[in-house]
Write a structure and sequence with these properties.
Elements: E1 2-12, H1 15-34, H2 52-62, H3 72-87, E2 93-103, E3 106-119, E4 127-133, H4 143-161, E5 170-175, H5 183-189, H6 192-197, E6 198-204, E7 214-218, H7 223-232, H8 240-247, H9 254-260, E8 265-269, H10 289-306, E9 319-324, E10 327-332, H11 336-356, H12 362-398, H13 413-430, H14 436-457, H15 463-479, H16 485-489, H17 492-516, H18 522-535, H19 537-544, E11 547-557
Parallel strand pairs: 4-5, 4-6, 6-8
Antiparallel strand pairs: 1-11, 2-3, 3-5, 7-8, 9-10
Amino acid sequence: MGKTVRVKQTYKTRWSTLGIAVICIMLVLATLWSEQPPAPKGENAPIEQFSAVRAIEHVRAIAQLPHPSGSVENERVRTYLVEQMELLGLQPNVNTYPWTGQYRGISESFELHNIIGVHKGTKPGKALMLTAHYDSTPFGPGANDDAVGVAALLETARILQASPPMDRDIWFVLTDGEEKGMLGAEAFWFDNKVREQIGLVVNFEARGSRGPSIMFQTSRNNGQLISEFASFAVSPVSSSLLGDLYRTMPNDTDLTVSLNAGIPGLNFAYIDGWDKYHSDQDTPDNVTLATLQHHGENALGVAMRFGSMDLEQVNDSDRVYFNWFTMLLHYPASWTIPMSILIGIGWLLCIVVLFRKKAIALKGMALSFLLTLGSIITSVVVAYLVFVGIMYIGSSVAGMPLQSASIPAQVNLVFVLIALLVHLAFTRLTRDRVNVLEMILTGMLFYFLLLIVVLGLIPGASYLFLLPLLIHCIVIGCTLHKRNPIMVLQRPWVSLVFALAPLTLTTSLFHLLYTGMPLQITVFTTVLCVLIFTLLQPLMTSLTMVRVSRSAKIVDSK
């Protein structure tokens, strides 16, 4: 008879690590919450406030049937709009232009009718122009595109008429023929006298049926425009990335014409729910009141702010800008290159000092590079296979080819989880051969390489990489005098500081991409997810680490 010692092992994740992980999730949720449109105000709202419930009545009157340019229904809508502008004291004029040409390969001939009303100001100077188009496609009633924009302007005009006069004239221009190639806007801006009278154009559009009203485009030299917009915007959703990205796309709006005419401008639209776009489902029932409220509050804010300004010269040096929670942050675009150079120098200095302190090793840096690259490739491959699977299964269930627009945006969370799980798996396999400092520095290298690419292609997106790199350089620089920098970086508060910029800034970007782009965009976002997790390596490593407690029990054995 002998004795056997059986050892029972239990594995526990540190509570501090779970706490930081929960806070990171809360940061993501807080970012998403801050980008929601404001709650709609009812018909009993004070007369000086925008009310989506009042404005939706205009949408219902306009979007009863499809009303493309030249149609009988378009004439009915125009009559209604002229009557409403007369009631608001805007003394509207209807400018008529004959047009003959081809649309979708079919020859057409009809008249365009732009409706122009003016809210008179008290001082001379260039006017502010608020504009939206009232025609629709032949395929749907156009409730969102663009009856909501028109309704937002009518409700804004009502508020202005009930308020003290503005300093400048405010033109309300409702264009015709936008859906057939910005025809009404082209005719409007052909008049040189008009160009001399307008100092700023603000356009209101839609490419969906819900979501926040996004300021997605500005004219060049936008410094003053951005500074002013940041001062009054309600829950602003905007980014210089969107402006640069939009310039690379073939899409156009009426603002394209005024920008080509050399007039400064801002462009607002909403993009979520884009499966309703240009379809028979673009009806008043599919208009979201909160979205209409946000669109309208942006229109009213623009009118109140820029209607009280001298618009003779609003050009100023470009700025990089982005929404962060309920604020629009911005800084001169001229800072971008010097900051990038300083960050590159800072990263190299950190590398040199840490090599000398033997906190990192060449072998570890090489392995961490391969680890990050492997994590990226594996995540992309798995994400692509899952994407193909979703499309195949969805098509099988639907019985027809599945359109990406009909897939809920929440499906994209699957691809974020894929990147997370793949990176955690790679981290667990190599955590004894690569330390967190080597992984962070490697992640910073990839981020810096992306920064260089972005500076050449879409410099407005540079903040996504510049700010996280700046914070990481500062924090790592502060640890260089420590005997063991790795121990400092593994403290919970460091993980939280590291997470703040990349998580909040990228969540905002992903939110826009996932709501406004096809599911294929997940290939790009998966790569960026892996790099973010690499920047958060102390937290990633902690999630794979367990504390082992052992208890021994003596039992009899034969």
